[in-house]
C-alpha cells in the first residue's frame, strides 16, 4: 500500500471528524477521573452525558455567506443588510461561526435585519506546505497550494490584494491583524469594526491604521497582566510543554489551547456533560448545547508564530498592556483612538477576565459568560440590542 506523500499532506477539516467529542479526549477523561473520584454514580452520569452528546442528531449548519473580499489567506463574508458595513473579527482560536451559530441564534443574521450590514472575517484553516513540513493558512473555501496560489493571483476581481502568505513561514498575531487592513480598504467606505475575544485585540491593533467609523470590543483581552499570576504561570507551563513539538511542526494544535481553557475551570468542564445527560435530546436546550460544544471542539491549529506571540509576548510579557505591540508599523495604543468606541466586558468571564480588558471609554459591564455574551439566552437583551443601537446611532450622525 502506498503511503501518503508528505508533499500533498493537508490537515483534515475539523468538521470532517466521524466522531464528535471533547478535544483532547484523553485529557477530558483525566479530568473526569479526578473530578468524580470516589463517586462512581456521578462518573457514570457524566459518561452517559458524553455518550448522548456524541450520538446526538445535529441540524445542518447555516450556509456560508458569499465571499466579497480576500486578503492573503483571510476572506470577508457578507451577511447583507442596509447601512454602512460592520466588519466582525473573530478569534484565531475557535471557528468564526460562533457569531453565526445556528438558525435562530445568529448575531450576524439578526443584525442584518436591524439596519446594519455585517461582514465576517473568516481566517481559514492551516495546511502543510509542500516540502517544508511547516504550517501556514490556506483559503477558507479550499485547501492546497493551488488554492493558495489562487488567493494570491492579483488578477482576481473585486478582491483586496493584501500581504501575501509566505511559503514555509508562519504569520504571527500582528500579521493577522495586518490582513484586516486591505479587507477594510476593499469596502470602499469606512466600516464599523467589531472584535470578539482575541479578534478584538487584533481589531484594536488594526484600528490604529485603518479608516473606520467606530471600534467595538467584546470580551477582548488587552492588559494580559489582568489574568493574574497563577493563571499566567499555568499557561506558561502549558506552553513550555507544547513548544518543543509545536515549533518543528510549525503549528500549535487546537488541543493545546483547549486544554488550557479546561484547566481554568475543570469542575465546570465535567459538570456540563453531567447536566446534558439529564436533558431531553429533542429540547431546545439540548440542541443549543450540541451546537455550542461542536463549535468549542472545532477550530484550526494556530500557525506557530501566532501561538508563540500569544503565549510569550501577550500572556507572559503583556506587550499590549505595556504599549509595546505594533501593527502595520503603528504602536497599538487605545488612548490614541480617534473614533467612537464601545466595549462589552463580563464580570463572569472565565476565559478573559474583566481585569484584562482594554478599558475603553463607553464600556458596558455584563453578567454573562465569555460565550454566553454572544449566544446565551440573555445575549440579545444584553449585547445584541445595545450593539445594534450603537451602530444605528452612529450611522445617523
Automatic annotation (TrEMBL):
Name the Gene3D superfamilies for this protein. Answer: alpha/beta hydrolase
Transmembrane segments annotated in the record for this chain: none
- Write down what this protein is called: AB hydrolase-1 domain-containing protein
Q: Where is the signal peptide?
A: none
Which lineage? Bacteria, Pseudomonadati, Pseudomonadota, Alphaproteobacteria, Sphingomonadales
Amino acid at each position: 500500500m502506498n503511503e501518503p506523500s508528505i508533499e500533498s499532506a493537508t490537515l483534515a477539516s475539523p468538521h470532517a471528524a466521524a466522531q464528535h467529542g471533547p478535544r483532547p479526549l484523553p485529557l477530558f477523561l483525566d479530568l473526569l477521573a479526578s473530578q468524580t473520584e470516589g463517586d462512581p454514580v456521578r462518573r457514570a452520569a457524566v459518561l452517559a452525558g458524553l455518550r448522548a452528546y456524541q450520538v446526538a442528531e445535529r441540524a445542518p449548519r447555516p450556509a456560508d455567506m458569499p465571499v466579497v473580499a480576500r486578503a492573503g489567506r483571510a476572506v470577508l463574508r457578507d451577511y447583507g443588510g442596509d447601512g454602512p458595513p460592520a466588519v466582525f473579527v473573530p478569534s484565531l482560536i475557535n471557528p468564526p461561526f460562533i457569531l453565526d451559530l445556528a438558525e435562530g441564534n445568529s448575531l450576524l443574521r439578526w443584525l442584518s435585519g436591524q439596519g446594519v450590514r455585517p461582514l465576517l472575517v473568516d481566517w481559514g484553516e492551516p495546511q502543510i506546505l509542500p516540502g517544508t513540513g511547516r504550517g501556514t493558512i490556506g483559503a477558507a473555501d479550499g485547501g492546497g497550494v493551488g488554492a493558495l496560489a489562487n488567493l494570491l493571483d492579483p488578477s482576481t476581481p473585486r478582491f483586496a490584494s493584501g500581504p501575501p502568505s509566505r511559503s514555509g513561514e508562519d504569520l504571527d498575531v500582528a500579521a493577522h491583524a495586518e490582513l484586516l487592513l486591505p479587507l477594510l480598504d476593499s469596502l470602499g467606505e469606512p466600516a464599523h469594526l467589531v472584535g470578539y475575544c482575541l479578534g478584538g485585540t487584533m481589531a484594536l491593533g488594526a484600528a490604529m491604521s485603518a479608516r473606520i467609523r467606530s471600534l467595538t470590543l467584546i470580551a477582548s483581552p488587552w492588559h494580559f497582566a489582568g489574568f493574574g499570576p497563577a493563571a499566567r504561570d499555568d499557561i506558561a507551563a502549558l506552553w513550555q510543554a507544547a513548544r518543543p513539538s509545536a515549533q518543528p511542526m510549525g503549528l500549535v494544535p487546537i488541543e493545546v489551547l483547549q486544554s488550557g481553557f479546561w484547566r481554568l475551570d475543570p469542575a465546570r468542564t465535567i459538570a456540563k456533560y453531567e447536566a446534558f445527560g439529564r436533558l431531553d435530546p429533542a429540547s431546545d436546550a439540548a440542541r443549543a448545547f450540541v451546537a455550542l460544544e461542536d463549535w468549542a471542539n472545532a477550530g484550526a491549529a494556530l500557525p506557530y508564530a501566532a501561538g508563540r506571540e500569544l503565549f510569550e509576548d501577550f500572556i507572559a510579557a503583556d506587550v499590549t498592556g505595556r504599549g509595546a505591540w505594533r501593527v502595520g508599523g503603528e504602536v497599538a495604543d487605545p488612548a490614541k483612538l480617534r473614533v467612537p468606541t464601545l466595549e462589552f466586558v463580563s464580570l463572569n468571564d472565565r476565559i478573559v477576565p474583566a481585569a484584562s480588558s482594554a478599558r475603553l471609554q463607553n464600556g458596558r459591564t455584563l453578567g454573562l459568560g465569555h460565550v454566553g455574551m454572544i449566544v446565551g439566552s440573555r445575549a440579545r437583551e444584553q449585547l445584541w440590542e445595545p450593539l445594534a443601537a450603537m451602530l444605528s446611532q452612529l450611522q445617523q450622525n
